[in-house]
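ping. complex inputs:
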Amino acid sequence: MRYVSTRDTSKTFEFKDVFIKGLADDGGLFIPETLVKYGENEIRDLKKLSYSELAKKIVYPFIGNFMPESEMSKIIDKSYSTFRKDNVVDFIKIGDKTILELFHGPTLAFKDVAMQLLGNFYEYYLNNENQKINIVVATSGDTGAAAIDAIKGKKNVNIFVLHPDNRVSPVQRKLMTTGKYENVFNLAIKGNFDDCQNLVKSMFADKQFSNDIKMSGVNSINWARIIAQSVYYFYSYSLVENTGEPTNFSVPTGNFGDVYAGYLAKKMGLPINKLIVATNRNDILHRAISKGSYEAEKVSETISPSMDIQIASNFERLIFDLNNEDDKQTSLDMKNIRENGKYLIGDDKLNKIKENFLSASLNENETLDVIKKVYEKFSVVLDPHTAIGYGAFDKHKLKGNNIVLATAHPCKFPGAVTKAINLKSDLPKELEFILNEKEEYDIVENNLEKIQNYIKGKIK
Ligand SMILES: *Cc1c(COP(=O)(O)O)cnc(C)c1O
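pong. complex structure:
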């Protein structure tokens, strides 16, 4: 399979470039030239597979000559052996919905599903290429922990994680800062998540610096993450599907990565009816899908911090799709967004979006209310992100198999859970030890030069 950029389809790339670069040099996102399509019978056959076997089947065509299939099989088995469930994910049926629990990996959020695989892809690639790289990533809490767990102790790669000082929950921070690995560096930035993200963007844009340190990124635009995430849509469809009933997914959304993975699964033939884009008060995607105007507002802090985002980077992939894969039009649209902060979606395109997506936004009280009601009715504790996914279904009343993606374990967000139900959600036993481990991180000013010097100093 070959890849192109959403802003220039004249050049093609191998998976290797796509994976290591993350972002195309023209600023666009990578997209495969063609997709493997699965027919009804093939999808029925997929039902018989374990999670890892299914992952091998779905992932292989995308990575082509990056590695032999036997090597990929080993890597997938190894990646998913770190999960607390044999089949990676778990399901619980509550009322008329199914909760798809994606948080049974090492750092208690769905991001582990893709990141564990990426970590092993890096290891394979670097062993063969004989080169050293440095991953630099900004996090509001979950991405950093998942990336660190995937990279810790691996050869030829360092990871630098920037989190906003004092703005991640203690459990989120401990998951990042308690491992003692020589290749992991935690920086608490005196600023907010946007500051962290801007610092990383500036470091990538500084070609001298990014080439010097062989900088690589693992944020949610990385195509390898999208592929890995599409697997659980296939897996849960097979397990939950009742013949004849439509299947819908509600996805707590920030950067449009996870829900885009569902859309990819649909494009590959999985008969998904609707994907609900569920957001908190930072509702740019809800406004875009319901009203046709994609327009950034100020980010506000919420009890679901992993979705406190105003620019949904992966949305460019959908824009490219709506433009019938026209790279020139997509470049123009993205330029308008950059310069005017706005993209107006015409009626034709909006109708196309609505064939696949619905959206909803929950405010803080509504989110707390869902956590409370679900706990009282079913004795299940949802984390605030998952609660938004759950509540989004109730705003649409769709018939059929309704699957909510549970993106994080509730113990990661004790503030919201206690506020809603006056209860503490404990860590899984295997992870309790982190509460007493020594933490290691450096508090650093929100200053590009200082941070670049910090990084250079560490990799000498
Ligand atoms: C990252 C994250 C999200 C949002 O995922 P996107 O791919 O950015 O849409 C939702 N919930 C949790 C718990 C997360 O960590």
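The pocket of pyridoxal-5'-phosphate is lined by residues 109, 111, 142, 220, 252-258, 306-307, 385, 407-408 (CB under 6 Å).
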